[in-house]
């Protein structure tokens, strides 16, 4: 089937199999590899992207379901001038990443959270990211990064 998806402001049209997952369309067709394939079972959140502004785990969405819609990946958060998004900077500055595998999904879930709630509490950040797993950081620094990106004071 023919699928057309706007990804990070660029229209991508391709013939794909009916069963093609959005994560594979993003990575293999559009060539945007920041979106990671983790568990393929919605458990880890490494494949989180924004679909029409809402965070989704792209391993559970068919490319056909995204046909005619707008997808934003981690690459799409970077400004046209090359400036990193405040979340990208905060994750780096507040050590919210270690191995980096979960980071794209965490940042995309956090971007969705901050769109809905620009000044979340620490508890709200934890709840907002509960579908994204990290095996390295223990989440404290991830929460600090999201709080910092929201313009709030970070606890030491």
Automatic annotation (TrEMBL):
InterPro entries: 2Fe-2S-bd (IPR002888), 2Fe-2S-bd_dom_sf (IPR036884), 2Fe-2S_ferredoxin-like_sf (IPR036010), 2Fe-2S_ferredoxin-type (IPR001041), Beta-grasp_dom_sf (IPR012675), Diverse_Oxidoreductases (IPR051452). It comes from the Bacteria. Gene3D superfamilies: 3.10.20.30, [2Fe-2S]-binding domain. Pathway: Alkaloid degradation; nicotine degradation. CDD domains: fer2. GO terms for molecular function: 2 iron, 2 sulfur cluster binding; metal ion binding; oxidoreductase activity. Signal peptide: none annotated. Keywords: 2Fe-2S, Iron, Iron-sulfur, Metal-binding, Oxidoreductase. Residues 1-77 form the 2Fe-2S ferredoxin-type domain. Pfam families: Fer2 (PF00111), Fer2_2 (PF01799). This is Aerobic-type carbon monoxide dehydrogenase, small subunit CoxS/CutS-like protein. It comes from Saccharomonospora glauca K62.
């Amino acid at each position: 089937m023919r699928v057309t998806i706007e990804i990070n402001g660029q229209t991508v049209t391709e013939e794909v199999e009916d069963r093609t997952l959005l994560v594979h369309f993003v990575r293999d067709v559009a060539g945007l590899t920041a979106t990671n394939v983790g568990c393929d079972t919605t458990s880890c959140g490494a494949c989180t992207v924004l679909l029409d502004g809402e965070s989704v785990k792209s391993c559970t969405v068919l490319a056909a379901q995204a046909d005619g819609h707008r997808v934003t990946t981690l690459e799409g958060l970077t400004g046209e001038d090359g400036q990193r998004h405040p979340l990208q900077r905060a994750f780096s500055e507040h050590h919210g990443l270690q191995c980096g595998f979960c980071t794209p999904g965490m940042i995309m879930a956090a971007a969705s959270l901050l769109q809905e709630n620009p000044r979340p509490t620490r508890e709200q950040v934890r709840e907002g990211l509960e579908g994204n797993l990290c095996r390295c950081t223990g989440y404290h620094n991830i929460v600090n990064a999201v709080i910092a990106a929201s313009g709030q004071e970070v606890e030491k």
